[in-house]
């Protein structure tokens, strides 16, 4: 499992990636970050034509039940992979 320090370091490194990840990967990073820091989704699904926030909410909702520790570890692993580590 990833420590809180490893997670925070990965969050900072995610902001300095040399290549912009695909939208799918960005959604995965977002969802893992939210699950790691806030737990299960705790807001209503956006409505209307707010497609970006609907996609983000759906990605986060898809991780429902995953522990914060698991989400932190997956986030760190994904950032390491993207950074080439």
Compact summary:
The two termini are 17 Å apart. This protein has 85 residues and is mostly helical.
Written overview of the protein:
The chain is mainly α and 85 residues long. It has one domain: Acyl-CoA Binding Protein (Up-down Bundle). The protein contains 4 helices and no strands. Helix 2 runs antiparallel to helix 4. The longest helix is centred in the middle third of the chain and has 16 residues, at 23-38. The model has no long low-confidence stretch (mean pLDDT 96).
Write down how many β-strands occur, each being a DSSP E stretch of 2 or more residues. 0
Give the averaged pLDDT, no decimals: 96
How many whole angstroms does the radius of gyration measure?
13 Å
Give the total of domains.
Answer: 1
Q: What separation lies between the terminal Cα atoms?
A: 17 Å
What string gives the helices and strands in order? HHHH
Which term fits the overall shape? globular
Beta-strand percent range? under 5%
If classified by CATH, what would the architecture be?
Up-down Bundle
Query: By helix and strand content, what is the structural category?
Result: mainly alpha
What's the CATH topology label? Acyl-CoA Binding Protein
Q: Helical region count?
A: 4
Give the proportion of residues in helices.
55-70%
Oligomer: single chain
Largest sheet: none
* The level-1 CATH class: Mainly Alpha
Can you tell me the residue ranges where pLDDT is under 50 for at least 5 consecutive residues? none
């Amino acid at each position: 499992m990833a420590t809180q320090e490893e997670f925070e370091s990965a969050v900072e490194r995610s902001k300095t990636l040399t290549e912009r990840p695909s939208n799918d990967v960005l959604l995965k990073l977002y969802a893992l970050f939210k699950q790691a820091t806030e737990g299960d989704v705790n807001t209503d699904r956006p409505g209307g034509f707010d497609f970006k926030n609907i996609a983000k909410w759906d990605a986060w909702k898809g991780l429902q039940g995953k522990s914060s520790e698991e989400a932190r570890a997956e986030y760190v692993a994904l950032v390491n992979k993207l950074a080439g580590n």
